[in-house]
Amino acid sequence: MIEITALSHKTLFIDHLTIGEGRTFLIGENGGGKTTLLRLLSGIEEPESGSVRIDGLLPRLIDTGWVNEYPDKSLLFSNVFDEIASPLRFQKVPCLVVLNRVNEIVEQLAIRHLLDRPVRELSGGERVLVAVAAALINRPELVLLDEYDSHLDNACCRQIDGAIAVAGSRYVIRSTQQMDTAATGDTVIVLHKGQVVASGSPHDVFCGLKGTPFYPRSWRESACS
After folding, report:
1. Domain locations along the chain
2. Strand pairing partners for 13?
3. Is the pTM of this model over 0.85?
4. Which CATH homologous superfamily contains domain 2-219?
5. How far, in Å, CA of 27 to CA of 117, rounded?
6. Sheet holding 64-67, edge to edge
7. Facing residues of 196 across strands?
8. Alpha-carbon separation of residue 220 from 26, 186, 217 (angstroms)
9. Rg of the chain (C-alpha set)
10. Which terminus of the chain has a smaller tally of CB atoms within 10 A, N or C?
11. 183-223 pLDDT, tens digit each
């Protein structure tokens, strides 16, 4: 269980929020606090006041895969293979294990053809796929994805969803502007001006948003009639 209590950080204010295992989507207008919340959950930032705990532990103690909305900000190495392998190499995993795991993840994401490419030559979408591969390679407990789907077509998004499922991470938390995608999750959290205004199942949350821009297009005929 993820538990956030008495949190105050930048423009984000959350009195109490719990997030269970499974696939959670963060939605809301730009500037509402989605990225800030993801950065707190990742341990990249620490709260000015209040607490964030993941299974009772500080975020920095949890094995986490992180994908930035702008992958150039998180890619560290000049070569694709080195970028994908880096999380395991930092953990001093044996070379053969690293090689086998890289081969597995590039097959899952259909990016084997990128392995020998310099990162600087990749398109924006290819960089996202490489960042996702690096985030998933060590099968983390927690996966955080910040609107990466804005760079990709539906086919690539489906490949990523499949790779995430294979990784078996207990918590997958994504921000997105795609309401139909968010409707497929286990939990939806709505952020508005730094506060949580709704949290629950997709049905419960989206039925309260009918008539707003945040209502899934595929639901407009029947889901909440």
Report:
1. 2-219
2. 8
3. yes
4. P-loop containing nucleotide triphosphate hydrolases (3.40.50.300)
5. 34
6. 64-67, 142-146, 171-175, 22-27, 187-192, 195-200
7. 191
8. 20, 20, 5
9. 18
10. C
11. 999 999 999 999 999 999 999 999 999 989 999 998 887 66
